[in-house]
């Protein structure tokens, strides 16, 4: 039986593999990030298994595959269940990432404690903290610790041997960057070790119908550390984000094979752990007095509406180059909206500095906030106060038209619940039946929307 040494060249930033060293990574465009990685000796006769089956499987017709209803396991936290698509799925692998101190271990400890009380066998494997530290955290959070089994181990093979003995239903790996497989000679945390360890655990989970939570580290630009392959291996990838004031936590699903992508869960951090926020719109909508540049819009995040406030500040340029600063909004989209405002709204902002902010630390990724952003800029520029009972939503096209957005009826219904009386929306989103207590202005162009705004 012969052995051969494998060498790979991997980009430390994005995890792309190359057959030879290059000065620039063709995947992410960074320079001098490709490093040589020793993959260790692999037997010709005992190659690593690739895929979930771990070997050759029988060929079947798609109609012959047994389809059964998947029972969901509740984590005991409705916001966590919402992000996961309704709860855990047997055999599913969830990767949860986040910056240090956001509460990844805390939310997992709270979730597994709730599931263990309901009869689920839970094994918590810690590779970064001692078991005493975890026990102290559970005591501080006042969690029942009688049903959670603990293990301090970093070897994947040793962990699987323990799994064969106690046969748990739920496994927590904290974290995937510190575990290693004995088949690879590289150090824990390297690209190859993270990839092989995650693949090994995923194959085990699929074969034994085991739910696995993996904790992942992030890089300095808040992206998930390790190879991009890690995101493809797992079934669900969620990120736990802290707001700027560090009071609130936002759980976002970046990938989910069992639910919708982009779903958000909201929590507040206090002395006894993470608590759910049942009404996140009230969290981000906390205006005291009316002011210029403040406009409310309704976003659609995952499967529910979210009312947020957008603020703009327009001031005369003090220097030769006016600044354009956006927080929570894509900088390029703000530049495009200002160009449309100049061309089709006859509002010129070339000599003004413009600052736009989404209150509460939310990052807007959809286009339904275009109209609200433009109106907030005009409100600050013309010193026009928008009444607090008015909201705007709609996508703005390059020719100045106001385009329809999805789930318009649900957005309006949620706005009524929060006390809004007037809504300026796209003409295509106008409801066929009047909504009690809500006056609707359906506009087709940007100029019509600005006329309505100035006449309020």
TrEMBL record:
GO terms for molecular function: ATP binding; ATP-dependent DNA damage sensor activity; damaged DNA binding; hydrolase activity; zinc ion binding. Signal peptide: none annotated. Belongs to the RecA family. RadA subfamily. The keyword Repeat does not apply. PROSITE patterns: RECA_2. It holds the Pfam family AAA_25. One of its GO terms (cellular component) is cytosol. Keywords: ATP-binding, DNA damage, DNA repair, DNA-binding, Hydrolase, Metal-binding, Nucleotide-binding, Stress response, Zinc, Zinc-finger. InterPro entries: AAA+_ATPase, DNA_repair_RadA, P-loop_NTPase, RecA_ATP-bd, Ribosomal_Su5_D2-typ_SF, Ribsml_uS5_D2-typ_fold_subgr, Rubredoxin_2. Gene3D superfamilies: 3.30.230.10, P-loop containing nucleotide triphosphate hydrolases (3.40.50.300). Residues 353-456 are annotated as: Lon-protease-like. It comes from Crenothrix polyspora. HAMAP family: RadA_bact. This is DNA repair protein RadA. GO terms for biological process: recombinational repair. Residues 69-218 form the RecA family profile domain. The middle region has homology to RecA with ATPase motifs including the RadA KNRFG motif, while the C-terminus is homologous to Lon protease. DNA-dependent ATPase involved in processing of recombination intermediates, plays a role in repairing DNA breaks. Stimulates the branch migration of RecA-mediated strand transfer reactions, allowing the 3' invading strand to extend heteroduplex DNA faster. Binds ssDNA in the presence of ADP but not other nucleotides, has ATPase activity that is stimulated by ssDNA and various branched DNA structures, but inhibited by SSB. Does not have RecA's homology-searching function. A motif (RadA KNRFG motif) lies at residues 255-259.
């Amino acid at each position: 039986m012969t052995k051969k040494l494998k060498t790979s060249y991997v980009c430390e930033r994005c995890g792309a593999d190359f057959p030879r060293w290059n000065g620039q990574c063709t995947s992410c465009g960074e320079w001098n990030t490709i490093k040589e990685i020793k993959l260790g000796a692999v037997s010709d006769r005992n190659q690593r298994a690739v895929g979930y089956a771990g070997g050759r499987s029988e060929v079947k017709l798609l109609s012959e595959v047994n389809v059964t209803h998947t029972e969901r396991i509740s984590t005991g936290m409705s916001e966590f269940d919402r992000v996961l698509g309704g709860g855990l799925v047997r055999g599913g692998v969830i990767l949860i990432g986040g910056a240090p101190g956001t509460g990844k271990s805390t939310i997992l400890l709270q979730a597994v404690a709730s599931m263990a009380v309901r009869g689920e066998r839970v094994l918590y494997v810690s590779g970064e903290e001692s078991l005493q530290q975890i026990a102290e955290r559970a005591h501080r959070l006042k969690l029942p610790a009688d049903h959670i089994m603990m293990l301090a181990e970093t070897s994947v093979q040793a962990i699987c041997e323990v799994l064969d003995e106690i046969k748990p239903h739920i496994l927590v790996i904290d974290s995937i960057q510190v575990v290693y497989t004995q088949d690879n000679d590289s150090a824990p945390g390297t690209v190859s070790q993270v990839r092989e360890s995650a693949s090994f655990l995923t194959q085990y989970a699929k074969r034994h119908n085991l739910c696995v939570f993996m904790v992942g580290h992030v890089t300095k630009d808040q992206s998930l550390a390790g190879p991009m392959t890690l995101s493809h291996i797992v079934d669900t990838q969620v990120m736990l984000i802290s707001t700027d004031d560090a009071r609130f936590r936002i759980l976002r699903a970046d990938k989910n094979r069992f639910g919708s992508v982009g779903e958000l869960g909201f929590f507040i951090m206090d002395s006894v752990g993470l608590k759910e926020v049942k009404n996140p719109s009230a969290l981000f909508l906390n205006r005291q007095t009316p002011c210029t540049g403040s406009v409310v819009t309704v976003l659609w995040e995952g499967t529910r509406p979210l009312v947020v406030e957008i603020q703009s500040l327009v001031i005369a340029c003090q220097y030769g180059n006016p600044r354009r600063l956006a927080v929570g909004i894509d900088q390029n989209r703000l530049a495009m909206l200002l160009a449309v405002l100049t061309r089709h709204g006859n509002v010129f902002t070339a000599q003004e500095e413009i600052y736009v902010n989404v209150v509460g630390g939310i990052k807007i990724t959809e286009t339904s906030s275009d109209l609200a952003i433009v109106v907030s800029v005009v409100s600050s520029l013309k010193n026009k106060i928008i009444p607090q009972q008015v909201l705007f939503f709609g996508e703005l096209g390059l020719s100045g038209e106001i385009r329809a957005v999805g789930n318009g009826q649900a957005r309006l219904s949620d706005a009524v619940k929060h006390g809004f009386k007037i809504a300026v929306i796209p003409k295509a989103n106008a409801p066929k039946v009047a909504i009690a207590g809500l006056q609707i202005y359906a506009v087709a162009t940007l100029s019509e929307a600005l006329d309505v705004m100035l006449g309020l």
